[in-house]
Amino acid sequence: MKSLIELLEIEVKKAFVAAGYDEKYGMVTYSNRADLSEFQCNGALAGAKIYHKSPLIIAKEVCEILQRCPYFEEVNAFAPGFINMNVSPAYAAEYLNEMSNDSRLGCEKNSNSRKVILDFGGPNVAKPLHVGHLRSAIIGESLKRILKFMGDNVLGDIHMGDWGLQIGLIITELKHREPQSVYFDSDFNGEYPNKAPFTISDLEEIYPTASALSKENEEYRNEALYATKELQNGRRGYIALWKQIMAASVADLKKNYEKLNVTFDLWKGEADADPYIAPMIEKMKADNVAHIDDGALIIDVSEPEDTKEVPPCMILKSDGASLYTTTDLATLQERMEDYAPDLVLYVVDKRQDLHFLQVFRASRKARIVPEKTELTFLGFGTMNGKDAKPFKTREGGTMRLQDLLTDVRIKMEEKIAENATITGDEARNVAAKVALSAIKYGDLSNQAAKDYIFDVDRFTSFEGNTGPYILYTIVRINSILNKYKENCAQQSSDIIGTYKILPAGTQGEKALMLEASKFSETINFAYEELAPHKICAYIFNLANLANRFYHDTKILTESDSEKQKSYIALLSLIVRVLEQCIDLLGFEAPERM
Predict the structure, then answer these.
(1) How far apart are CA 529 and CA 513, in angstroms?
(2) Alpha carbon distance 592, 478 (integer Å)
(3) Strand, coil or helix: 379
(4) 493 pLDDT exceeds 70?
(5) Of 119, 159, 178, 330, which one has the fewest beta carbons inside 10 Å?
(6) pLDDT digits (tens, 9 = 90+) for 302-326
(7) Cα 59 to Cα 40: distance, rounded to the nearest angstrom
């Protein structure tokens, strides 16, 4: 189903052709002067130079033809050559009724479905999630939903840090605490205990302790580096500990991501890519793609058109140690062999831009990734406090994600407690849903690449451009629909789903209808540009118009039953659109607030 503006553009292009001009001049846009018209076309201005005619004359000729088209209520030419158009209320209603009858609300799937690997998350195991993990999770989950909705086959990969020095540090600290443990006995050949010698809480204390010691004690750090090497060389006791660290960490990560309504299809990490590193490096050397420079193995990735220096991509350090670039290239090798994706999309902090530029170029030069496979880096900005600096606790430390979620939920509980109609478990459940909307909408309403201020007071407000405001609008509309079903629909055998939307009787109603008609093009824009913020902007406008319509229109007390049914049909469509949009953003509305 084409969008309303696309259908109007088809008619305008036909009119240009009928008037003797090229159809390319019939491009239609939304009016930048809403007080003058709903849509406009500026093609006559460009055509004037080609046809050596006054743009106003061309515009008037086209308008004369368009005035016979039933899609338009009013068409006018304005100096110096603008074509202003208002759509017919009857045609707008016809479009919305067709939209209502479509399970996808008129939004067609992409005809060329792609296999997509979406890399987002990136937590290190044995460490609690902190606010720095928030944006990748929120943006990545929304993009995953948008891509899937548009027909792509998407696999979301958490890509954990699970094979580096942090594991060596944990093993070293465990060894210092329990040196007699069988895990550290190189002669032990039996089965290791099923129960881990630690809890996730223990790990969250052990890692920072070990990390701090390694910074002040070189001997301790060298011991941790050696433990890391032993692990990666397959030492039995260390592999057993690693598996138990992974089991505890993954269980905790799943619990915390579940609170964010975030899921992953693949729970892979750096360890999964490790077997690919050695053969990948050998092939790079054999193909003369990589070479030794000052003891390190590198790939030159600079290109003649670069406007600033792009350093070589280092594959191995001079001591033979691998780096993040090594692991990321090996991960790409694994993904190409296992999944052959059409697109690999990374949702990562924008400060990693140079790293991914180097990795992408190196992967092409080493023929790890074929040219037909698209590699995309979507870098996001930082979440800052009111001081415009990266968000911290009151004490100045990095805030745990769980603590942030709890703080926002408690604030929502306090606000909901003011409504005496919701108490107990229901109030807590509602607060959790509204708090999640506040956090996610507060993040996603900003363009991903931009830094933003995390303002708890503003984000949890039920007024303004916030998640709670959007949810409040949905709850309000559903309340109206439920009251209608209880009080009005029971009086007849009518099925609400068969009600038709009639032509708008007021400007406010028409404005709401036209905004609703933008659903499919909004989702397409968000899909093509990887931009969830476009959905946020759309539903904020739609919610504003829906609330205005509610205030200006007697819906449940309307005496004209046909008009009332039209209002119910319109609101039913609006709430479906809003609910579909917030699902794509990754949150849901409660039944009441």
Answers:
(1) 25
(2) 9
(3) strand
(4) no
(5) 178
(6) 999 999 999 999 999 998 888 999 9
(7) 11
C-alpha–C-alpha distance, residues 55 and 57, integer Å: 5
**Rounded to an integer, what distance in angstroms lies between the CA atom of residue 593 and that of residue 585?**
20
Average pLDDT over residues 440-466: 95
C-alpha–C-alpha distance, residues 573 and 95, integer Å: 12
Distances (CA, A) of 422 to 318, 463, 486, 553: 64, 20, 21, 28
Contacts of 472 (CB under 8 A, 6+ apart): 462, 593
Q: What distance in Å separates the CA atoms of residue 321 and residue 323, rounded to the nearest whole number?
A: 7
Provide the pairing of β-strand 296-299 with 313-316: antiparallel
Give the domain ranges of the chain.
4-87, 165-259
- Nearest alpha carbon to residue 227 among 217, 215, 239: 239
- pTM for the model stands at 0.95
At the fourth CATH level, the homologous superfamily of domain 4-87 is Arginyl tRNA synthetase N-terminal domain (3.30.1360.70)
**Per-residue pLDDT for 367 more than 60?**
yes
One-letter-per-residue 3-state SS of 206-229: HHHHHHHHHHHCHHHHHHHHHHHH
Res 394: pLDDT: 67
How large is the average pLDDT for residues 119-124?
Answer: 93
In contact, 100 and 572? CB cutoff 8 Å? yes
- Residues 10-31: what's their mean pLDDT? 98
Please give the average per-residue pLDDT across 206-225, as a whole number.
Answer: 95
Helix axes 561-585, 519-528, angle to 10 degrees: 10
